[in-house]
Amino acid sequence: QKAQIGVTGLAVMGRNLARNFARHGHTVALHNRSYGRTKELVEEFGHEGTFLPAETAEQFVASLERPRRVVIMVKAGPATDAVIDEFAPLLEEGDMLIDAGNAHYADTRRREAALKAKGLHFVGAGVSGGEEGALHGPSIMPGGPKESYEALGPLLEDIAAKVDGEACCVHVGPDGAGHFVKMVHNGIEYADMQLIAEAYDLLRQVGGYSPADIAGIFQGWNEGRLGSYLIEITAEVLKQVDAATGKPFVDVVLDRAEQKGTGRWTVQAALDLGVPVSGIAESVFARAISGGVTEREAAVAADLPGPTGGGGHTGDLQADVEQALFASKIVAYAQGFQQIQAASKEYGWDIDPGAMAKIWRAGCIIRAKFLDFIKQAYDKNPALPTLLVDSYFQDAVAGAQDAWRRVVVTAAQQGIPAPGFSSALAYYDSLRAKRLPAALIQGQRDFFGAHTYHRVDKPGSFHTLWAAEGRPEVDA
Ligand code: NDP
């Protein structure tokens, strides 16, 4: 008997993926650097399906049917290269190595090119949903050569999350496309979490609501257009009471957000592509500020002054914050999708943005009703320049903007940081502006560096001789 698929790297993610394949009736070959994990999996979960445990890489490879499909689920980075170096010499033309870890897309591009030269298919697959998703159905974003998807896709679709019977898995595009999209997914997740946190903070500090009250408010929002996994779990977290102290859980947790780095990667990639993902960037920076203990302590010790005046919120705070959250979320997603489209163009990936929204509707952290509207927007117009001009989103923001502005004003007046809400609003206002002060920046650049500028009334590059005889002259 041969296995249809093999998994090497059997820590929590690999083990759950292997079990998920087995539960769907596939025979699964198992391998891990140290045999202990392999043995443990078979002992604990062997009854769930058919597993072929292997002690060595050679046994593992020999137990797979051809073309071989080897899922690598190890610590991202050098471990992945070590595993590839171990397996590649054992594989034959047409076999597939599938890296399901959180690799950087540039590493995936490098690995894909190197393995292609050896006649092997390398598939960088983004897998979202954590350990629960891996077991019960993740959202899967496979890249790599299109041909490999023919032999691999049906297996991945089997174990992926489903919405109305449709799998949350699609071939994203060549080489690093899958890992790129997974990275942006994580960046959007950062932005979403930051915006929700700001909504909580404003309700608490301006509205005086308790964490339990806010849990109730979020539960209400979860029934509406904000309905999503993140809103749902936020309500659960806010409801939680610390057993030791009887205080709300949020009040006993140190307020320093940590990060594993995919948000940072997203912003770095966006900077390289020149795409303004200010919502994701602000959320990465907000985590960094929260963890910047020395500066925060110094500022608190110096008692840096806050606002001296400023009244309360004018308007219905709860309703306004919901509108601000929704509008800011639209901006964050619009920016994330713009980044995917920019990379798709840069690398020739031909990514279908609507399909990305579709496969994020279940199995992953940012799953939300909202994604249906994004999918519909791209179905209507695959060439949509920004989600903000889609009729659904345009109307939603038009309806939300007055409330959104009131919330940003209140935050500023009361000295409550709301970098997500306010930067999203600034982005929106920048996009809609007929004229931006960038013209002045062009003038400054031309003044000090002769960088030239373009004119509104005729084509070509122009430079002004700023210093000549104290009077500007124009040199066309
Ligand atoms: P870890 O990231 O903790 O990695 C542990 C596994 O990597 C073990 O199987 C370990 O083998 C193996 N490993 C480490 N170094 C090497 C090496 N040099 N050679 C061979 N094998 C090595 O496991 P997780 O299950 O948490 O995550 C796996 C991947 O999935 C990571 O890339 C992670 O980023 C990604 N991921 C994780 C999610 C999560 O929620 N945890 C969600 C989505 C993706 P040994 O047992 O011998 O030490």
TrEMBL record:
Record carries keyword Disulfide bond: no
Superkingdom of origin: Bacteria
MF-aspect GO terms: phosphogluconate dehydrogenase (decarboxylating) activity
Keywords, comma-separated and alphabetical: Gluconate utilization, NADP, Oxidoreductase, Pentose shunt
Signal peptide start and end residues: none
One Pfam family named in its UniProt record: 6PGD
Stored SUPFAM superfamilies: 6-phosphogluconate dehydrogenase C-terminal domain-like, NAD(P)-binding Rossmann-fold domains
PROSITE patterns, alphabetized: 6PGD
Catalytically driven reaction(s): 6-phospho-D-gluconate + NADP(+) = D-ribulose 5-phosphate + CO2 + NADPH
InterPro entries, per database record: 6-PGluconate_DH-like_C_sf, 6PGD_dom2, 6PGDH_C, 6PGDH_Gnd/GntZ, 6PGDH_NADP-bd, 6PGdom_BS, NAD(P)-bd_dom_sf, Pgluconate_DH
E.C. number: 1.1.1.44
Enzyme class: oxidoreductase
Domain annotation 6-phosphogluconate dehydrogenase C-terminal: ranges: 178-467
Any coiled-coil regions, as ranges: none
Pathway: Carbohydrate degradation; pentose phosphate pathway; D-ribulose 5-phosphate from D-glucose 6-phosphate (oxidative stage): step 3/3
Function of the protein: Catalyzes the oxidative decarboxylation of 6-phosphogluconate to ribulose 5-phosphate and CO(2), with concomitant reduction of NADP to NADPH.
Subunit (UniProt): Homodimer.
Similarity field: Belongs to the 6-phosphogluconate dehydrogenase family.
NCBIfam families: gnd, PRK09287.1
Protein known as: 6-phosphogluconate dehydrogenase, decarboxylating
Gene source species: Actinoplanes sichuanensis
Lineage: Bacteria, Bacillati, Actinomycetota, Actinomycetes, Micromonosporales
Gene: gndA
